[in-house]
Amino acid sequence: MRGHVSSLSLDLAPVANHYAAVLHRLATAPATFLRRLRAVHAHILASGFKPRAHILNRLIDLYSKSGDLPSARRLFDATTARRHDSIAATSLITAYSAGGHLDAARQIFDHTPLASRDTVFYNAMISSYSRASDGPAAVAVFRDMMDDRVPRDSYTFTGVLSAAAAILPLELAQCQQLHCSVVKSGTENSVSVSNALIALYAKCEAQEAAVHAREVFDLMPERDELTWTTVVVGYVRRGDIGEARRVFDEMEGRFDVVWNAMISGYVHHGLFSEALEMFRQMHCLGIPLDEFTYTSVLSACANGELFNHGKAVHAHIIRVAPDFDPETALPVENVLVTLYSKDGNVDVARRIFNDIRRKDVVSWNAMLTGYLNSGKIHDAIDIFRDMPQKNQLTWMVMISGFLHNGLAEEGLKLFNQMKEEGVKPCDYAYAGTIAACGELGALEHGRQLHAQLIQLGYESSNSAGNALLTMYAKCGSVEAAHLTFLMMPNVDSVSWNAMIAALGQHGHGIEAIDLFDKMIKDGISPDRISFLTVLSACSHSGLVDEGFQYFESMERDHGISPGEDHYARLIDLLGRAGRIDEAWNVIRSMPFAPGPSIWEAVLSGCRIHGDMTLGIYAAEQLFKMIPQHDGTYILLSHLYAAVGQWAGVAKVRKLMKDRGVKKEPGCSWIEVANKVHVFLVNDTMHPDVQEIYKFLEILGVKMRKLGYVPDTKFVLHDVESGQKEYVLSTHSEKLAVAFGLLKLPAGAPVRVLKNLRICGDCHSAIMFMSMAVDREIIVRDGKRFHHFKDGQCSCGNYW
């Protein structure tokens, strides 16, 4: 366009055609598109040419596509006649919706007279709502279209069906009504419409929806890549991985997207080996592998602990060097961080993390999780501090990480920090924090969190409910735990297992096995954890025959092969009951060599019943397997001390010193007035310690009158009797109980927690304390709960 067009000698048709051709060619030069468009528009205005509708519509369309919506709108509003032009209105509706301005698009739609509306115009508005996932609005426009008797085509139904799929919950009747409309319109043979119908039925939870989706699929005269993908993904979402695979095997053509969907489905359902095999087939057949393929197969390797295979896939990626841009590579790099972290190679994971060019919050969370799971708490804290942004998952992972690394108190502090920074905790964050309260025995704090859960509407959350149940049980309130269990709207296998474990730990063995039997009657299949909990419950209550029956039913009735942990529970059950010979026979019949947990159970049983020969042999096996574990030395010392073999005790003590093994110091703690007070053996640091010792001295007089005699065989030192009694009187659990009796309101239960197993003398002493002061005293040690009341213990002295 080199010359100047004179307005005096204007031949309208050629000029119009000339401008139309120029505008058509503009779209081929995107880099200079908008600048050239404005130049052409300026030339039209300067020439005096009065463009007709098709030129103005083209200008509006091009301005809309260029993103210059103000110019498009000015042209549209220039004359009232423009408002009656559906072509221009359609261009503006499409442009406004693409830019996220749905209100402006709807304004154009509403101001366009009914007489000017056509099929394409309605389709534009329906598609706008569909892209915005506003299903109800799209369906409402579709109904208006029907009422206005505007013809519907395949684009109409593709748009409205896609939008309707976003309406949740989606009723089967709604799907069928739209399906009928498709059939009446004659568009059912359109591939895009059929695909949208299948996707609609796939989103519907009704069981019959899958049948209707399959009918649509089977009747399609032709299918494309999206068809196969939609059907496979639909079956995967419903958990029917077998039918998904059958459809996949019928597939015509090698669509990489469908292969990716199938691999992802296997990963989602925990079929990691199958996912890996499909990846291998995909590679052998030469089907293109992309970032979605690699992300899924690496996830399979990470979640299925197929670490060597994962490293082989990583090596393959390095070798083929796919041309990923930073955004495309990011999901693959993130799952590589997870893979190496789970394999224990957290340093390799950190190198991959450092090389990620555009890290997102998923990258940071993956590295954070890796450090926490590896026990590198200080590195995790550094990562958490350096994160440019945090989401709810970040806080939840960090709170749980503190808990699992023995830093429950830090988890509580972080939860409070989370709220102070304005981040609303989700139910999982509450679950982690409630679990921390359980570890600390912070019952009142846990109750406060329970109240907050109810206020926020999280009481129906299974994760929060299970955490509450466990927290109450660990804080000694098994009644509150049971009430929580009964009030949960949806109990799962975790809930049942937690309640069975709670009953067992509190000495309610009969109730625990009754609940286990009820779980099975209610149609919940027991898993490995279920059997561990019921075997422990039998062990704590001396239910030997019942425990044997449950153990034998594992493989016979439920197809679960007992692991070493199950055998350890069974041997512990027999050992506590004094049936050492039977325990030895079980060990000899095991399908694998006994590990540390087995020999620990044997040694514990020998300590209780004084079997020196087998106890020493079990200790020797443990010294070979876990020479740095202090528990072996302590149990062996107790075994020697019980029969007065002080030379043996000294020998064990020297062995510990020579090997650099340090005994974990015993400590007990109690919550008073929302504060946790910790006591050590022979404590001199607590501010009230002198008052505590005086109280114990006075209380001791009452206890002796009731028949209490200190059991000095639990002192592992060959010293005078009076000195032994003094050593016993300074045990941490006695100090914590005395503090509770002094500081808690009259009549309130005293709840004490201890990190190690309660000693025999303290167990006897606290029974007499409960009688002397007429109070219930609850002690949680490293193994179980003891409820002391009226001079009796819930364990029945079977512990």
Mind explaining what this structure looks like?
The protein is mainly alpha-helical and 799 residues long. Helix 25 (427-440) runs parallel beside helix 27, helix 27 (462-474) packs parallel to helix 29 and helix 39 (689-705) packs across helix 41. Helix content is 68%, strand content 4%. 44% of the residues are buried. The chain has a six-stranded mixed beta sheet, covered by helices on one side. A hairpin with a 2-residue loop joins strand 1 (667-672) and strand 2 (675-680). Among the domains are: 482-659, Serine Threonine Protein Phosphatase 5, Tetratricopeptide repeat (Alpha Horseshoe); 667-793, no CATH class. Keywords: Repeat. GO terms for molecular function: RNA binding; zinc ion binding. This is DYW domain-containing protein. Residues 707-799 form the DYW domain. PPR repeats lie at residues 118-152, 224-254, 255-289, 360-390, 391-425, 492-526, 527-562.
